[in-house]
Amino acid sequence: MDTESWQLLEEGLRKTMATASGGELDAALSDLGWLDMLDEMPDTAIPLVFRLLGETGAHAPVLNDVVLRAAGRVGGGTVPLPYAGGAWVVWERKGLPGPALGGDLPIQRVTDGEPVPLAAGRQALGWWLVGTSRSMLSLARQHALDRVQFGRPVASFQAIRHRLAETLVAVEGAEATLLAASDDLGCLMGKAAAGQAALTAARHCQQVLGGIGFTAEHELHRHVKRALVLDGLLGSARELTREAGAILRAQGSAPRLVRL
């Protein structure tokens, strides 16, 4: 796909996600050929679609498709997914947000599920978390530029700059890890890095925004809730970091993730 076609695709997806969410967006993505893209160019379709979900704040149950395809099954359905703490959930394709996990998404708790391939799903969630983190950072940065105290924009204060810089470093590091991921361990570490970056973004951006960041009228709280839910899916950052450490101890060595 050439650069112009890629830009048109991204622009079209962004506009679609800006006007639809949930089941409506699921249907719209299907009409746009999401499943075909997932089959023919997963390495580009997954980062693009899931990053845009994070940036726009929309949601769709397309994580099911990624996991089902990785398992060699037909997309368009649902599959039980492991959640942090040994729980299992199902991301419904239709219906209203469920009471589980804060009532933000149509996710329902289930008693158990069968093991499924996790690498592709973790990579997809990692890109979603990166997109969400960038949205939080953008909101905080704009507030810091607009908000004036003592006759100066708060963006000129060193403490504010440090929080924004630490957030950017965490997000860029997570994105680099996801780009380098090429196997199960790489995807595990990418998801862990993205989850940690999202938690860092939520903490720092909340502090930069101050009181307005706690209000229901501001967009930040939606991204924070989304980040907390997505971090727990297919293993939280804390759990995956421990799992990666156990794998490396068992192997006795650490693989080279990137050749510089």
UniProtKB/TrEMBL annotation:
Gene3D superfamilies from the UniProt entry: Butyryl-CoA Dehydrogenase, subunit A, domain 3
Entry annotated with the keyword Signal: no
Which residue numbers delimit the Acyl-CoA dehydrogenase/oxidase C-terminal domain? 118-235
Provide the alphabetized UniProt keywords: FAD, Flavoprotein, Oxidoreductase
Q: Which InterPro entries match?
A: AcylCo_DH-like_C (IPR036250), AcylCo_DH/oxidase_C (IPR009075)
PANTHER family given in the database record: ACYL-COA DEHYDROGENASE (PTHR43884), ACYL-COA DEHYDROGENASE FADE28 (PTHR43884:SF20)
Task: Indicate what this protein is called per its UniProt record.
Answer: Acyl-CoA dehydrogenase
